[in-house]
Amino acid sequence: MRVALFITCYNDTLFPQTGIATVRLLERLGHTVEFPENQTCCGQMHSNTGYGDEAIPLIRRFVKAFRDAEVVVSPSSSCVSNIRTAYLRSLVDTGDEALKRDVADLVPRVFELSQFLVEKLGVEDVGAYYPRRVTYHPTCNSLRALKVGEAPLKLLRAVRGLDLIELPDAQECCGFGGTFAVKNEDTSVAMLSDKMRTVLGTRAEICTALDSSCLMHIGGGLHRLRSGVRTVHLAEILASTEGDFIHGERR
Amino acid sequence: MASAAERHTFPELAKRAVADTQLRRNIGNATQTIRAKRAAVVAEVPDWEDLREAGRSLKEHTLRSLDRYLVQLEEAVTKAGGQVHWARDGAEASRIVIEIAERHSVKEVIKVKSITTEEIKLNEALEAAGIRPFETDLAELIIQLGDDVSSHILVPAIHRNRAEIRELFMRKLGLTELSDRPSDLTAAARTYLREKFLTVPMAVSGANFGICDTGTICVVESEGNGRMCLTLPQVLVSVMGVEKLVPTWEDMEVFLQLLPRSSTGERMNPYNSFWTGVMPGDGPQEFHLVLLDNRRTDVLADRTGRQTLNCIRCSACLNICPVYSRTGGHAYHSEYQGPIGAILTPQLHGMESAASLPYASSLCGACYEVCPVKINIPEVLVHLRTRAVAQSGFTLEKLAMGAAIRMFDNPRLLETAQKIARVAQRPFASDGYITGGIGPVRQWTKARDLPAVPSQSFRDWWRTRR
Amino acid sequence: MSAAREEVLGRIRQALSRDPAGEIDIARSYRRTAALHGAELVDRFAERAEAYKATVLRVDAAGLADALERLRGRFVVPDDLPEEWLPPEFIRDHRQLGHRDLDAVDGVVTGCALAIAETGTIVLDAGVGQGRRAITLLPDFHVCIVPVERIVASVPEAVAALRTSLPRPLTFMSGPSATSDIELNRVEGVHGPRRLEIIILGETPD
Ligand code: SF4
């Protein structure tokens, strides 16, 4: 399949390894990955912070970049959920019927990575190897907006060498919430402390999820604590193979 | 986003609340307890999702024809011997209640827990008119005696522990001996209020539902204080928001399942009272229904905000909310707290006085998932954020957001910005992480490290590959 | 007053003026009946009522006499309570009793309009054998006789049956009065009766 990758602005800037992993993984599974270079940002931060009207040029840009794609895949559940839920809502009062039609036409072809693999392609074992104790945090957008359900867990269970440890109170929000993390810093950090406590309680080495943004928040807290526990996007786990490790250590 | 008129912003109040570890523990334990109870009784109902859909559609159906249904209710109540009053705002509703009290030369009234009367500050108005209101719900009594404010729409004194309540009761009820066992504290309240129930001639209540085809009003409660107020006095006045209607008696089959399981986590709350006008020889012989607008019609006019009026005040959204369960209710500075408070307060009291509330959420969506009438609270929050932005004047945030759009709408500018960031972060970055900074980065890095911008973006990598 | 009425109604019409025409359909896919019958129905009611800390007795006609015989103290009863349901010492209420009189008795015996198995609820509708609302409110002990044929399975079945009770007042009671206002500890018995005894009367059907 021809897969157009929507990398998202913050993965592009801060977490290129997540994008690289997504490319490696999809290519390993035999797909052709394309990267339309005129893509930038879906506009999520703007529309969630109350600047939905201002973000309309970004909707237009997204549509232009991906209009001809067979499928669009993104390693970010929150951006996919923004595209699926906020785009048409933002356009309601614009009267730009052509753009509305384009969005309505494109949205069903936009997938979050794990949902694409499990639900669209029907793949659970992607041939990955990852010899680590891992716990999975279901981010709110993946859990409630996209309803990815068991998809990421099915993928993780099929990874060889991986020891999947259940996270208690997994469904509780980590406290990131986009600009919430800085506008309501105290509350955000209070939520984070509880999330870190449960993550550390699992004795996992790695906490994974479908959103680099939430992982940046959880990982930033864990790094500040010098806890030794790292956050890694699911794509990176799924992209890993035996060749990436020597005696259990990453090359 | 705080405007000048918002005296207490959510972030400021929340900061204080989350620093209070005892409070955080109390609220955390309490919300966990109710969450578990709710989850258990909801799981028992095989058609829960069908009921939610019925609840949502019933509410939306009724709101769509609200004028017709209100007139129908008015006719039915009047025919059954009740008197119906209309109030444009809180002051008008309070005046109506005071006039009824004065007509009967009443100096004291007993009250059933009602957030609507809190919203319109009825108690203050009654006191100013020389009429003493007695709150009869245990938690409301604790709040009233302590000169405190509610922190939870269902369990207003959730922030108080037994030792504080014991001390308060001893001081205010003139008791010399009292243990801090909840059963003893409850018994003390029973003794104190029994005399009031037997002697005070007028009661004021809210209403959970007004049933249009029969003119029947419903109050749900647990303690029996509601039944006392609704049954024993000669005069009863119920203040009801115009949105609390259900079309027919049969529709109660939906709400009588949704409400108790969502609110107290019981299969049915201990008491539901239904009355229709005046029943000769049984209960109050004079009944007044005050239909209150107080900006509800403005909420109705907002097509996205309108769903807020579906609310049946169950409080499930508070209990499930990760923000509420860390901050408690006082941070919302309103008689409506938690997610519903964050969307209702700015709509009822004006955005100017509550502009930080729509931002008091991580948009996690847990509230939407539990709401028995399917209010899409995250959607309304985002909608109200848009209104808050539109109403605010110049802010640095607006400037920055505008600049960000220009950057994101131009891949070259984005790449330039990435390059600038790599340089600008140097003073703060070590070992791949940024540990301090200015503006939002400073807020972020108080308790979290921030990954530094790596030397190669994904885009750069992609190009090297080809 | 009518100025307010016209203004509020006007604002509502204004608020709705941009809405598309037509009504919003009500989704009625939920259950209107529950598959509970015979012994299972009665058992479910008993179990759910007990979950609220109500005392539940199950008796036949002879057993009822024994159950009533045990009741100690003065009980108020509705003026039309059947003879066989009377406790040893009773006062019939013809609405002559004041609130203080009702506050002073030891208990009350009534029947009910119906009972709901799934929720363990009894419903009084001021009909035969139930009296006015105050008599089941002020006494501290409520004994409620529930003939088995009055038990319905679910809330929708109860609501449908109660249509004809209106406009009389209805009271749904689920256990004795209770509060969870102090640290969410449930305490039974606040302002309403502190004890509720439910006597299920009749042969349990198969
Ligand atoms: S918004 Fe929904 S969940 Fe929250 S109190 Fe209202 S009805 Fe309950």
UniProtKB/TrEMBL annotation, chain A:
GO terms for cellular component: cytosol. Residues 3-83, 134-218 form the Cysteine-rich domain. It holds the Pfam family CCG. Signal peptide: none annotated. GO terms for molecular function: oxidoreductase activity. InterPro entries: Cys_rich_dom (IPR004017). PANTHER family: LACTATE UTILIZATION PROTEIN A, UNCHARACTERIZED PROTEIN YKGE. This is Fe-S oxidoreductase.
Automatic annotation (TrEMBL), chain B:
Keywords: 4Fe-4S, Electron transport, Iron, Iron-sulfur, Metal-binding, Repeat, Transport. PROSITE patterns: 4FE4S_FER_1. Residues 72-278 form the LUD domain. GO terms for molecular function: 4 iron, 4 sulfur cluster binding; metal ion binding. The keyword Repeat applies. Residues 309-375 form the 4Fe-4S ferredoxin-type domain. Residues 395-465 form the Lactate utilization protein B C-terminal domain. GO terms for biological process: lactate metabolic process. SUPFAM superfamilies: alpha-helical ferredoxin (SSF46548), NagB/RpiA/CoA transferase-like (SSF100950). It comes from the Bacteria. InterPro entries: 4Fe4S_Fe-S-bd, 4Fe4S_Fe_S_CS, FTHF_cligase-like_sf, Helical_ferredxn, LUD_dom, LutB/LldF, LutB_C, NagB/RpiA_transferase-like. This is Iron-sulfur cluster-binding protein.
TrEMBL record, chain C:
It comes from the Bacteria. SUPFAM superfamilies: NagB/RpiA/CoA transferase-like. Residues 88-201 form the LUD domain. It holds the Pfam family LUD_dom. This is Lactate utilization protein C. It comes from Skermanella aerolata.
